[in-house]
Amino acid sequence: MASQSAPPCIVWFRDDLRLSDHPALHAAAATGRPVICLYVFDEPSRMAQVRPLGGAARWWLAQSLRALQKRLKAVGAPLVLRGGSAARIIAEVARATGSGAVFWNEIAQAPHRAAANEVAAALKQIGVTPQSFPGDLLAAPADIRNKEGRGLRVFTPFWRRVQALGDPPRPLPAPDSLRPGPNLASDTVESWQLEPTRPDWAGGLRDSWTPGELAGRQRLEGFLRDGLAGYAGRRDRPDRDGTSGLSPHLRYGETSPCQVWHAARFAMAERPALSGDTEKFLSELGWREFCRHLLFDVPDLATRNLQPSFDAFPWKHDDVALAAWQRGRTGYPIVDAGMRELWHTGVMHNRVRMVAASFLVKHLLIDWREGEKWFWDTLVDADAGSNPANWQWVAGSGADAAPYFRVFNPVLQGEKFDPDGTYVRRWVPELAQLPTSLIHRPWSAAPIELQGAGVDLGKTYPEPIIDHREGRERALKAYAKVRAS
């Protein structure tokens, strides 16, 4: 136990807005010293080159910080909020409080590592000890290398290598109490203007989500209890509640990947019959890991084609078509349902994400980077690794990419994965009265059928902005040129 006069230590919170399985917080609590919990919103400084958050992500961050404030207050240590350069602010707080050490969890992304290096250098100049801990991944990128020392570009061998390392460390408990540090001035969440006001478009986000560590834990426990059985097949059905909904909680570190791993393994041990569903669920966690490792090796993943041959791809510049896609007005119900779900809830079902992304880059030949930027702004789970990696996967320009000849037919995808039209009826209500046989292809309905359903194609609902066959043939020609070059 440290003496009453022991200098405080600082915990720098980053994308790890939780108390449990927080190695840096655990280490600080173990010192017995007073703990200063500090979050730095360094986006305004732009010094660390961290990608600015999109609108939906900013909303989530505001709620998550409030939830963290409540959790920390309950164990005795307030959360101090400061805006600006992390290196400058953390050094100032350390100097002003006489802190002896600063602890934080690593983030294996180039801009975040650069920011951490700046912080470490600033602390060393004033004689304060910096100490970092792994906490963002199941495996360190250095542990998953090929013979040439590069990261793996194909998911299956990558995931096998991660699993071969054995179980990650068991999650650490949250501290029961913390010795508070000196009183410090703090910004407020409201002062950072993270939430929309004029207009306030976040009503759907509030209706759909409860951010924070406790909500993330409840979602994980509820999924493993009630949603794991049948997950392998049900996860592709947007008309059903078949996914875990954990992605935004993982994105902000309200839940750690180690917590998800061990909770899933425990659930599988209790119910061995669900091993197939559990392994599929864990492979989705593995895909997040794969994307993060890819980002570690390719910091400009959101702007550069991973396969250079795509630099010559004949993308089309079409603002009208792009706007129709963004607004869910393409005339293809499954695509439009997904884009409207995204705007309202801040997420889109994974299967529909693939269909909507394929439609943009293949049917419309619009650069994948335009879609990535839209998703970055509208997804509450916008992840710097998964978002661009998934877009490049669909476009064919990325790692382990989908074959160029795979052009999703939005009609067949809708009929297969939303067979009763439940998903489309929810998000495209102007088509709700169409019979199931026509819900995914309203243009094939007879005039009397459209009239009976209250649909006026071209007015109440758009006609397709491109014919599927025409779009597919045009895409295949464009991809063939790139392959030939």
Features:
20 helices; Serine Threonine Protein Phosphatase 5, Tetratricopeptide repeat; five-stranded parallel β-sheet; 47% helix; DNA Cyclobutane Dipyrimidine Photolyase, subunit A, domain 3; Rossmann fold; mainly alpha; 485 residues
Written overview of the protein:
By secondary structure, the chain is mainly α. The protein folds into three domains: 9-134, Rossmann fold (3-Layer(aba) Sandwich); 137-169 and 213-297, Serine Threonine Protein Phosphatase 5, Tetratricopeptide repeat (Alpha Horseshoe); 308-479, DNA Cyclobutane Dipyrimidine Photolyase, subunit A, domain 3. 47% of the residues lie in helices and 6% in strands. The protein is built from 20 helices and five strands. It has helices spanning 23-30, 55-75, 86-97, 110-125, 155-164, 203-208, 213-227, 231-234, 247-251, 257-270, 275-297, 319-326, 333-345, 350-363, 368-378, 386-395, 410-417, 422-427, 447-452, 468-484, and strands at residues 9-13, 35-41, 79-83, 101-105, 129-133. The chain has a five-stranded parallel β-sheet with strand order 3-2-1-4-5, with helices on both faces. Helix 1 (23-30) links the parallel strand 1 and strand 2 (35-41). The termini are far apart.
Strand content: 5-15%
Which sequence of SSEs, written as H and E, runs from N to C? EHEHEHEHEHHHHHHHHHHHHHHHH
Count of individual domains: 3
Low-pLDDT stretches are: none
Q: CATH H level of the largest domain: which superfamily?
A: DNA Cyclobutane Dipyrimidine Photolyase, subunit A, domain 3
Helix percentage = 40-55%
Q: What radius of gyration results from the CA coordinates? A: 24 Å
Structural class designation:
mainly alpha
CATH top level assignment of the largest domain = Mainly Alpha
> What's the story with the biggest beta sheet?
5 strands, parallel
* Lateral strand order in the biggest sheet: 3-2-1-4-5
What is the number of helical segments per DSSP (H or I, 4+ residues)? 20
The count of β-strands is: 5
Task: Give the termini distance in whole angstroms.
Answer: 68 Å
Morphology call: globular
Mean pLDDT: 95
CATH architectural category of the largest domain = Orthogonal Bundle
CATH topology value of the largest domain: DNA Cyclobutane Dipyrimidine Photolyase, subunit A, domain 3
